[in-house]
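REQUEST ID: PR-0412
SUBMITTED BY: lab tech R.K.
PRIORITY: routine
TASK: structure prediction, single protein chain
INPUT:
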Amino acid sequence: MTDDQVQPLLERFAADAGRVLPLVALWAHGSLALGDYQPGRSDLDLVAVIAAPVTAPQRPGLQRVHDALRTQVPLADKLHCAYMARSDLADTGRSHLTWAHGELFDRPVSPVSRRELSLGALCLSGPPPVTLLPAVTDQELADYIRRDLGDFWYPATGRTKLWFRDIWVDLGMLTLARATVTLRDGRLITKREALDVLTGMAAPDDVVADIYQRRYENPPTASVGWRARRGARARAFVRAGIERVLGFPRAP
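STATUS: complete
OUTPUT:
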């Protein structure tokens, strides 16, 4: 079910966080739940359902829990967790206290994450998501994906420097493939499946191979020249793909 290093991390996290915020349920979604988890490369995407919203006095304790995990437990730097009060589960627009990328901040749990939870969550404790989370409709899911492509990813394709970084190439290409399938077929796919979809979409072969190697193998260090070429190809492909999916007019 989980990697040998992941299971102790999840158990330690549940115990430590549970002393600060009594947990109603703890769920994993994303690659860990869907069978595409790569230790040290994939994020650990968690949702903790709590009895009531996090209070100001509880917040420093939660910060200490995450800080200690990052310094003491392997892979903990990849752990992300949204803390959702049970009374707020039905409000899809509400922001929830979230730990990600080394800090606490507020953000909503997206319709994509909610659909993932309903279809294939790993229930670590408490009742499963289908008993607590309201279902996400196909229309809500499609509307969110279109907004994400149009409002976030499309403007990002105009920012050349972003695409020198691995994370933007990976997420941009994979997000486009996954969005295309969901809008067309109504289903969610893994990142591994998205690589096959990219090949079928005539994505640049060398860029797809680069993403695969960095996720599943041990590639050589990329040169500055390759990063520039890769970024330009990925950015152009994602931009054209969004225009096609959303029906944007192509620039002359």
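NOTES: The mean pLDDT is 93.
REVIEWED BY: pending
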